[in-house]
Amino acid sequence: MILKKAFDHSGGLYHFRFHELKLKKLNNGFFGLNYYLNDILKECPDDYFLKGPRGSSLKFKLPELNMHQIKGHEVSELTEKGLDFNGKRFKSNHMKVQVFMLENDSNTVAMEIPIWLEPDEIDNFNKIFKEEFPLTGHIDLLRIEDNKIWVWDYKPKAFNEKYAATQVFFYALMLSKRTGIDLNNFRCGYFDEDYAFIFEPKKELLDNPELSGF
Question: What pTM, to 2 d.p., does this model score?
Answer without folding.
Answer: 0.94
